[in-house]
Structure formats: structure tokens, C-alpha cells
Design brief:
CATH superfamily of the largest domain: HUPs
Number of domains: 3
CATH topology of the largest domain: Rossmann fold
Largest sheet: 9 strands, mixed
Helix content: 25-40%
Distance between the termini: 44 Å
Shape: globular
Oligomer: single chain
């Protein structure tokens, strides 16, 4: 059984970062809500308590049952977690009218503490709390302080219990990864052997035992997640995996043919379905973004179900669900408010009476790419930017039509090819430890929007009245937050000129410089 560290989530917005940092050092971990602690088996080597938006003095403050954990397993309490330990085990926590938020300089006062081995005596940390620990519990002693926070880190004598009032998981804590590595490897005794190769080996064995000779249906999208899921399943069950790739008529220029050919080259058993006319017929007169998503999603279910019914004996539906989707569905506060309904297409398993298999549900997005690379999947497939489920349907603001699709496809093709052909010396968005070969590889996601706006222009000796194209390019780690990319002016000038000169129906190009939040990556 895979050794792991259990992370108990009190609702912090950065809890996922704790998991990501541990995975980066090849330590497997799982995030669970503080009030839904799973059975703790011998494979659990340690526990981490997350931060929280609550004060320990709030009436609704999370209360966790640490019986069987504290004093029995290595425990690292972060921010709210550290205040919770202090408050509930004999210390004193005072509320402050002023939040301590931002960078602080940490001074290690106990240089023998295993939590701070190979950590500089003074290093930058990130504070984000309103409460502060005024008095430590009995048998606890300080191991690090800042100028304003005496009890910035402490340990409880006779236990492998450590607590910090700062966030070691965030980027601004400069040596936070070393602290987490110390906790996981030195204090918990983890081997740090959870690698893409070990994941592939164990997942294939698990899939073979679970699926036996059953047939599995998988809907391919051309994206990273479904592609990696397909290759894993193909290695496990071979021709018993039947993939369905639907052309919804809303894909990018030549995308269906090119991606289908790539899948066939990889030896996947894939059925290509041309259903563009049906999808477009469902979008006639539809302008509301949510109504468009629902129309596209419902039509996909209809087409997919029709194709699946032709496959006799199928018992499983495979999905490319990844770990952030799993965490979101079981978060402390329940599923988050709906920002976009196209993330996953629901309804298929129930409609088709199939059981679900999700080979990637333990992985973060960057880990999916690492596994894909270890599986030998072509770089251009693994490095593909995320693409929305409703495809270009939500990049055409307002009603979708064949003419608008032609304009958007042609403009988007110029933009994406331009990014691929423009060299740069920036880090890769998919592999941050490597350098990108071109602008496309340095960007998390890029795309083109067709606005429902026509403006006056001059083309040749005549006035024109044509559409506006908006270009979008963002950098992100997981899509939850994103910042716009500072593309070179020379590049933007060339792309704008090419689009206006080569795409009939466009006389103006804009570049979107909005970040998420407050904007979203897509426009609809």
C-alpha cells in the first residue's frame, strides 16, 4: 500500500498548494475535509493541518477530532492549525483587530529542530492570520520567531508535533519546500518514491485487477487529461478500451482530423464521429452563455450515448477526472459556486447504466503531464493548452453561426501558429524547470474570441464595417488564478496585421490584459 501524508483541510484557499508541494518532492498525499477523516491505516506516515478563513474564537470555527493522531503520528499544524493546537491544548490565542498579512523575516531559534534542517537561520516567510499565539501549551517550546510574532513556530516536547503560524506551502515562503521536505522525509520517514513511473506501474496493475476482461468506453476530447487516461487504460486492457472522439463542429481549424490521426498512430482503438450539423442546429438563436453550454453538453450526451449503444458488452465509462475536481466536490464548504458548467459533462453514467473508472483522479494537472511524458506521449499532445468543453461555442460571444466559426477558426489558427513559431527564452508553462522552445510552450492557455461588435475601418480605399477579434493569453499553474502574458509588441503587431489582412470579416484586433480574478480565462 502506498505510503502517504494526510492533509486535513479547514477551508484554506491554499490547501491544494500543500499537496502540490509534497507531490513535487515525490511524497504521495491526500486532502480530506477536517470533519471527514478517513480511516488511518499503517500507510499514513503523518498528518498536516491546513489554514482556515476562521478564527479559533469564531462560533463556527472548525473543531477536529485529533484522537489517534496527535502524539501518535507526526503532525504539522499550519496557521489556523497551529492556533487550534495552542488553543485546545492549554495555550492562549489572542484575536487582533489587525491581520498579520504579507512577508516577514523568520529567525530560527532552535537550530537543532528537524523541521528547520538545511533552512537558513533567517529566511522570508508569508504570514496570513488575524489571531496570534500569546502563550504556548504546556511542554511546548518556541523553535522560530519573527520580529512581530514570538511564537511563529513551536514544537511539543515528547511528540513529533510541529506548528507554524506562517504558510510554508506558498511561493513567498522562500524555503517552505525544504521545511515540508524535512517534515515528510526526516520527521515522518517517507521514502519519497512516488514518481510517474511508480504511478504508472501501480495504476496499470490496479486497472487490470478492477476491469478484468470488461469493455470500457472513454470519450476523448483531444486534451491532456483524456489522452493520458486513454493511454493508461490502453496499456492495461488493450482493445477492450473503445474511445469515442466527437467532432462537435466547434473545434479549431483541422483539429479533428489532426488529433484523430495522432490517436490512431498511438494505437488507440478510437471511433471518430462527425456531428457538427447536429450541434449547430441546437445553437440556432441561442445567445445566453449558460444556455449555449447546456445545449452543447446535452447534445454531446445524446451523440455519445448513440455511439456507445453500438458497443455491446461495455460495463465501464472512463473519465479524465483529476485531483482538483475530486477535492472540489468534497470541500469543507461543499461544492463551490458554479462559475462554469462545462467543466465536466454530467448525466452520462446514469443514462448509460455504466460504472465509472477514473485512472487520473489522484493527480494534479502538472502530474498528469509528467505521467504523460513517462508514457511516451508526443510533446505536442502533452503540452496542449487547456481547451473548454464547449469549444469555440463559448469563444463566439452571442449566437454561433458557420460564418462566425470560419472567421474565428482562421484568426485563431494565425494566433496559435504565431505563438508556436515565435522563439523565446522563458520557462515552460508545462514544465517550469525547463525552458520553452517558443511562446506557445511558455503560456498556460491562449485563444481567440470573436466579439459581437462591428466597427468602422478603412481597408484599401473603402470604409469597412466588420468584426473585432480579441486575443487572450494567460499564465497559471492550475487555472484557478491566472495573469495575462506580456506578449512582445512586435509579435502582437505581426499577428494583428496577419489577421486583418488574411481573415475576411475582421478589421480590428484587441489584446485582453485582464487577470483572473476578477475576470475569467474564457469570455463566456
Amino acid at each position: 500500500m502506498q505510503e502517504m501524508i494526510l492533509i486535513l483541510d479547514f477551508g484554506s484557499q491554499v490547501t491544494q498548494l500543500i499537496g502540490r508541494r509534497l507531490r513535487e518532492i515525490n511524497v504521495y498525499c491526500e486532502i480530506h475535509a477536517y470533519n471527514k477523516i478517513p480511516e488511518i491505516g499503517p500507510n499514513v506516515k503523518g498528518v498536516i493541518l491546513s489554514g482556515s478563513p476562521f478564527s479559533v474564537h469564531d462560533a463556527q470555527a472548525p473543531i477536529v477530532n485529533l484522537e489517534g493522531i496527535k502524539g501518535k503520528l507526526p503532525l504539522l499544524a499550519i496557521c489556523y492549525g497551529s492556533q487550534y493546537i495552542a488553543q485546545h491544548y492549554g495555550g492562549v490565542v489572542n484575536s487582533s483587530l489587525t491581520r498579520e498579512y504579507g512577508r516577514a523575516m523568520l529567525t530560527v531559534t532552535d537550530e537543532k529542530s528537524p523541521l528547520f534542517q538545511k533552512v537558513s537561520r533567517k529566511s522570508q516567510v508569508w504570514m496570513s492570520h488575524g489571531d496570534t499565539i500569546a502563550q504556548l501549551p504546556k511542554d511546548a517550546h518556541v523553535i522560530a520567531s519573527t520580529e512581530d510574532v514570538e511564537n511563529a513556530a513551536y514544537t511539543i516536547d515528547g511528540e513529533a508535533t510541529y506548528a507554524v503560524q506562517f504558510h510554508p506551502e506558498v511561493f513567498h515562503t522562500k524555503e517552505g519546500t525544504q521545511m515540508l521536505l524535512n517534515f515528510a522525509l526526516k520527521i515522518c520517514g517517507c521514502k519519497g518514491d512516488w514518481t510517474p513511473d511508480s504511478f504508472i506501474e501501480s495504476t496499470i496493475q490496479s486497472l487490470q485487477a478492477k476491469l478484468n476482461d470488461d469493455k470500457v468506453i472513454l470519450g476523448l476530447s483531444g486534451g491532456v487529461d483524456s489522452t493520458v487516461a486513454a493511454v493508461l487504460l490502453n496499456k492495461a486492457i488493450g482493445k477492450n478500451l473503445i474511445c469515442i472522439f466527437v467532432d462537435n463542429g466547434l473545434l479549431r481549424k483541422n483539429e479533428f482530423e489532426e488529433v484523430l490521426a495522432s490517436y490512431e498512430e498511438m494505437g488507440l482503438n478510437v471511433v471518430g464521429v462527425h456531428a457538427g450539423p447536429l450541434f449547430l442546429s441546437k445553437l440556432v438563436g441561442v445567445t445566453d452563455p449558460e444556455a449555449k453550454r447546456k445545449a452543447i453538453g446535452n447534445t454531446f450526451i445524446e451523440v455519445f450515448d448513440t455511439e456507445a449503444q453500438k458497443i455491446s458488452g461495455a460495463r465501464w465509462l472512463a473519465q479524465g477526472t483529476i485531483y482538483p475536481d475530486v477535492i472540489e466536490s468534497v470541500s469543507v464548504n461543499g461544492p463551490s459556486s458554479k462559475i462554469k458548467s462545462h467543466h465536466n459533462v454530467g448525466g452520462l453514467p446514469e443514462k448509460m447504466n455504466l460504472k465509472i473508472v477514473e485512472p487520473l483522479r489522484a493527480l494534479f494537472k502538472d502530474e498528469v503531464r509528467r505521467v504523460g511524458r513517462a508514457l511516451g506521449i508526443k510533446r505536442e499532445l502533452i503540452g496542449r493548452h487547456p481547451f473548454p468543453g464547449p469549444s469555440l461555442g463559448i469563444r463566439i460571444l452571442g449566437e454561433v453561426s458557420e460564418e462566425k466559426l470560419r472567421i474565428l477558426r482562421d484568426a485563431d489558427d494565425i494566433f496559435i501558429k504565431g505563438l508556436r513559431n515565435w522563439p523565446c527564452d522563458l520557462p515552460s508553462a508545462s514544465y517550469p524547470n525547463e525552458m520553452a522552445d517558443n511562446l506557445y510552450d511558455s503560456i498556460w492557455q491562449a485563444g481567440t474570441m470573436l466579439l459581437p461588435v462591428k466597427s468602422v475601418g478603412v481597408m484599401g480605399d473603402e470604409r469597412s464595417y466588420e468584426y473585432t477579434i480579441a486575443l487572450r493569453a494567460v499564465i497559471s499553474t492550475d487555472g484557478m488564478t491566472a495573469d495575462w502574458v506580456h506578449l512582445p509588441y512586435e509579435f502582437l503587431a505581426k499577428v494583428s496585421n496577419d489577421i486583418i489582412n488574411k481573415v475576411k470579416g475582421v478589421n480590428r484586433v484587441c489584446y485582453d490584459i485582464s487577470s483572473k480574478p476578477p475576470a475569467t480565462i474564457e469570455w463566456e
